[in-house]
Each structure stands twice: as structure tokens, then as C-alpha cells.
Amino acid sequence: xxxxxxxxxxxxxxxxxxxxxxxxxxxxxxxxxxxxxxxxxxxxxxxxxxxxxxxxxxxxxxxxxxxxxxxxxxxxxxxxxxxxxxxxxxxxxxxxxxxxxxxxxxxxxxxxxxxxxxxxxxxxxxxxxxxxxxxxxxxxxxxxxxxxxxxxxxxxxxxxxxxxxxxxx
Amino acid sequence: xxxxxxxxxxxxxxxxxxxxxxxxxxxxxxxxxxxxxxxxxxxxxxxxxxxxxxxxxxxxxxxxxxxxxxxxxxxxxxxxxxxxxxxxxxxxxxxxxxxxxxxxxxxxxxxxxxxxxxxxxxxxxxxxxxxxxxxxxxxxxxxxxxxxxxxxxxxxxxxxxxxxxxxxxxxxxxxxxxxxxxxxxxxxxxxxxxxxxxxxxxxxxxxxxxxxxxxxxxxxxxxxxxxxxxxxxxxxxxxxxxxxxxxxxxxxxxxxxxx
Lengths: 169, 259
Prior knowledge:
The structure holds two protein chains of two kinds.
Chain A: H1 9-16, E1 35-40, E2 46-50, H2 59-73, E3 79-83, H3 96-105, E4 107-108, E5 139-143, E6 151-156, E7 161-166
Parallel strand pairs in A: 2-3, 4-7
Antiparallel strand pairs in A: 1-2, 5-6, 6-7
Chain B: H1 8-31, H2 40-68, H3 74-79, H4 90-93, H5 99-120, H6 126-154, H7 158-171, H8 183-190, H9 201-214, H10 239-252
Helix pairs in contact in B: 1-2, 1-8, 2-6, 5-6, 5-7, 5-9, 6-7
């Protein structure tokens, strides 16, 4: 017995929009660049591919579970959520809207990645990250690692606020 | 005893397991800092790096299980092998020591990983290549972090200087093994899926020496006696007790599942 899916790929994408990142609830997994592809095969099976942001990201299992729950909630008869490691996630996959939402949420968004050819010679230099609250450049790096692996800890010397920066990878 | 011939597949599995074992064992050690960091920021940084390392190990084990194709899950490699089956560097299994010791080890390991991954990032195997490129991005942060601290501690107070110098002196006997290579590496290099460690030995040494110089530290004797055998399963007395802690819960409940 085969049950035909009631949904199109576009509709599945719409459902995925309702799945938010558990660590950054203002962003959904499409804006984060976590949801990579949606396909529906001939028998109606929905395959959603997601990719982890950081290798050790503890939110990954939660996200996988949330996607499955969402698909179940929409009564999709047959589906699979696959982890895709073929291409390394990059902050460049985050949408522009996502970056604006991040800033409004108080996290300095990642800038565009640049070629890292001079990595070894620039080991001591740190990037200047503007404060998400007051836009001041008088900020300093406090730690490369914040409350999660994807964020670094900064301090703004203008408005005296600690803030997080979504690291650019 | 007859000499076994190593197939390409065997070599691939061993290669993946060596990489994975280094990261699982070091990740487990670094995780011991969780809740014990000298300051909150470092507690978070070390816990995050431990997560990264265990994440790297997890994807490598998963791929090793796939290549092996014997129906093993990735957990098999982490929880159901004994110490002599682990092929991690002895450097990775040493107790965490004080903060200086942990930083010194992180610097030696992450600098080595950085060069190794840089050379591996164009391997032929697509899935392996994807993993390497992902891990490399994170390793760069680990290297920055540990190098910053080597400079701060080395060029800091008399106490911090002495502690990090002592840490490097103690760790030195374990650095020789970083550049060990055998038939596993040879097969992987010939398949376009491995790297010849000797090709980046000079670059690595240069990074170590210039950092030591900047940190006002003395480079220990490169030609001193060095430990050997970890890639063949020979370990220090520290691995066994650590595995006991890492594995006992899973071995008590072998059917347990994360889901």
C-alpha cells in the first residue's frame, strides 16, 4: 500500500521554517543554513537533509528530533532526516535576515568569511567586532568561546556590556 | 607468526580510528575541566573544545563503521574496545594536570592537527574530505586559543612562566610520536587519502619554536629520548583508568541508546 504525500517540497520548506534553533530561538533552521535540502521520491517519502553547524554541537540531536516531530505533526506518512557532512557548514549560509535578527537579539552577527591563507601569520591578531547594542568599535575579545562553541565572548567598552559574537567560520 | 598483509580497506579503518582515538581520548581529558576551569571563560572554552574534539571523534568513528561494514555502530569503537585496541597518541591520554599542562598539551596537539588537516583537506574520498574541512575550521580556533595562552603564561609572571615551562618539559617525551608513520600511512598516501607527516615537520617545528621564543620559553631537546608504540596500542598507565570511567556505564547497559 502506498500513500501519496499531500505536500509539495515548498510546503515542506514552510514546515521547516517553524523549527527554530534551540540555542538561538529567534532563528529557524533555514535561516541558520542547517536545513540543506528537501526531496520527495516517487513513493512519496520525504527526505530532509540537515547539517551540523559545529562538530560537537549538542543542539544537533535536538534539532534532528524537532524536525522529525514537525514532520510527524504534519502527518507525513514516510520521511527520513539525514545528516549531511559532505560540505562543511559555514556562517555564509546564514541569510541576511538571520543576521539582522541575531543583532536585534543581542548577538553580533558573523561577517562574511574571507580566505584564510594568512592564518599562521595572523595568529595574534583579533578581529574588531562592533557592539550589537551601541555599534561601538571599542570592544575587546574576552574569550574565543562563549556559551556555545559557535560564539565568542566580547566586552563593549563604550556601553559596558558583555556580548556574544557569532564566530565566522 | 605470519605477517598479515594490510588491505586498503584495513588501512583506511586504522587511519580513521587513529584520528578518532586521539580526539576522543583528548576530548574526554579536556572535559574533566568542566566546572573546574580557573575562570568562567576558560571553563566554557575548555568544555567547548572538549565537545568539538568528541564531535570530531564521533564523525570519524561513524565513518570508520561505514567503511568497515560489519554492522558496528560508532559507539562500538568508543565503548567496546579495550586499551590495547586504542591507537591514540600517549600525549592525549596523560592526566589533565594543572591549567598550564592542559594548555601546553593543547598547543602541541592543535598545532599538529592544524598542519595535518591542512594537508588532508584535499583527500580523494569525498566524505572524509568533508569531515576534514569541517574539523579544520574548528581546529584553527583551538590553535589560536592555546597559542594565546602559551604566550600569556610564558611571558606572564614567574609562577606562570615556570609552570608552563615545566609542562612542556614533561610533555616533550611524547612529541616524537606525533610524527610516527608506518604502512597504514603509506597505503593511505598512495590512495590519495592520507598525508606524509614528514612534509610538515619543519613547518610545525618552526611554529613551536617561534611561539616559544615570543613566550620567552626554552625549547626542550628535540633529540631527547621519545616514547613510542601508541599507534600499535601501547599506552601509559593512565589510559586504562580513564577508559574504565568512560566505558563503564555503557558496558553496564550495553543495549542503552541515546534516543
